[in-house]
Write a structure and sequence with these properties.
With about 230 residues, the chain is mostly helical. Helix content is about 40%, strand content about 5%. The protein is built from seven helices and two strands. A hairpin with a 5-residue loop joins strand 1 and strand 2.
Length: about 230
């Protein structure tokens, strides 16, 4: 085949193609005709929670790879035991300024969005899912939970505890601290002793330091730490 013949053939093919494009109806509201590799346009997709015979455990949504952390997360170097929670209480401190009104407002938003479903808007363990049969958590404003250090609360929110799942993937680190700061305001409103930082006796035994909220006499007689 000569070059001239090839060019003539290509020219005829171009004219025929242009003629067909001109003659065929042009309805921009209709999708193009799919004749080649339709699976590229309509791939087989699975729902997040649907069974999947291809992936491990027969599930579509897989757990994070061991050793990985969420994007922009510094990681969490504590285990899930009570001993690790106590260590977190001694070593972890909020990077946020406690008196920052914007931070407290953010903490209120996070608490009402992510915590109040179980804990209730006032922290009284009366959230809507509890009222519909989910096991009630302990109150955030009375009893033993107000005595937890900030780092212990952060550990619980991050790792989960009993019926409470981990919130590490739902709530960013700073938002967890902000929510804890807001919980402290709920506890202060309820006039309960708060533990904010550890101190030590002269013998080196850790004791608790309370916030400016005075401890009720009944709590002091029950053996709780007094300032």
């Amino acid at each position: 085949m000569t070059t001239t013949t090839c060019n003539i053939g290509l020219g005829i093919a171009l004219i025929v193609t242009l003629g067909l494009n001109w003659r065929l109806p042009h309805d921009t509201g209709l999708p193009n005709t799919e004749t080649i590799l339709p699976d590229m346009a309509h791939s087989v997709a699975y729902d997040y929670f649907s069974p999947n015979s291809v992936l491990p455990n027969g599930l579509t949504m897989q757990p994070p790879v061991a050793g990985t952390v969420p994007y922009q997360s510094p990681g969490f170097l504590y285990g899930a035991s009570l001993e690790e929670r106590t260590r977190a209480g001694l070593e972890l401190h909020s990077p946020l300024e406690a008196a920052d009104p914007l931070m407290l407002e953010r903490g209120k938003v996070i608490f009402e969005r992510s915590c109040a479903l179980c804990h209730g808007l006032g922290g009284n363990a009366d959230g809507p899912v509890v009222q519909r049969g989910y096991p009630a958590p302990k109150s955030l404003v009375i009893g033993e939970l107000p005595l937890l250090r900030d780092g212990e609360m952060y550990h619980v929110v991050t790792m989960g505890f009993k019926n409470m799942p981990s919130q590490a993937y739902q709530v960013a680190s700073d938002d967890r601290w902000a929510a804890i700061a807001y919980i402290r305001t709920l506890q202060q409103t309820a006039a309960i002793p708060l533990i904010t930082s550890p101190t030590e006796t002269s013998a080196g035994t850790p004791i608790t330091a309370t916030s400016i909220t005075p401890i009720p006499a009944a709590a002091a007689t029950a053996g709780e730490a007094a300032p």
